[in-house]
Amino acid sequence: MHEMALCEGIVGIVEEEARKRAFTKVNVVCLEIGALSHVAPEALKFCFEAVAARTIAQGARLEIVETPGTAWCMACSKTVEIGQRYEPCPSCGGYQLQVTGGEEMRVRELEVD
Ligand SMILES: [Zn+2]
């Protein structure tokens, strides 16, 4: 499952941070998920609990911030926001878009003790 692998990645990042910053408990993991990343937040939360069990991230709350997809419109010569891949340009309605952002997922912040 896609989400399972992502959660393992998140826990890995948390464990690495714990080593660097020497904290022992994580309260909140704040994640940024791009609108075009095909990650289902609910599935992610569910998997996270399972993957985080018996790690330093156990019991941490997952806070998910969705970031918009962005694309470069050739016709408008500017960056526009899109909600989905293959959506037309919101300014001109054209389809000459090149996705430039919103496909990534990253850990934005950790709230720790
Ligand atoms: Zn356009």
TrEMBL record:
> What are the binding positions for Ni(2+) in this chain?
2
One GO term of the biological process aspect = protein maturation
Where Zn(2+) is bound, by residue? 73, 76, 89, 92
Report the InterPro entries cross-referenced here: Hydgase_Ni_incorp_HypA/HybF_CS, HypA/HybF
Superkingdom classification of source = Bacteria
Enumerate the Gene3D superfamilies for this protein.
3.30.2320.80
Q: Name one GO molecular function term.
A: zinc ion binding
Q: Does the keyword Cell membrane apply?
A: no
Q: Which UniProt key words apply to this protein? A: Metal-binding, Nickel, Zinc
User: Would you indicate the residue range of the signal peptide?
Assistant: none
Task: Give yes or no: UniProt keyword Metal-binding.
Answer: yes
The similarity annotation says:
Belongs to the HypA/HybF family.
Output the PANTHER family linked to this UniProt entry.
HYDROGENASE MATURATION FACTOR HYPA
The protein's role, per its UniProt record: Involved in the maturation of [NiFe] hydrogenases. Required for nickel insertion into the metal center of the hydrogenase.
* Family matches, as NCBIfam families: hypA
Protein name in UniProt = Hydrogenase maturation factor HypA
Organism, by scientific name, is: Bradyrhizobium sp. UPM1029
